[in-house]
Amino acid sequence: MNTVVIIGGGASGMAAAITASNDKNNNVILLERQQRVGKKLLSTGNGRCNLTNTGAVPEHYHGAQPGFPDEVLSRFTPEDTLRFFDSLGLAVSCEYGGRVYPQSNSANSVVDVLRFALMRDNITVKTSCPARKIERRGEGFSVLTDEGKINADFVIVSCGGAAGAKVGGVPLARAACDRSELSARAQGREGNGKAAP
Question: Which of 3, 27, 121, 131 could make an S-S bridge to 7, C-beta 3.0–4.6 Å?
Answer without folding.
Answer: 131
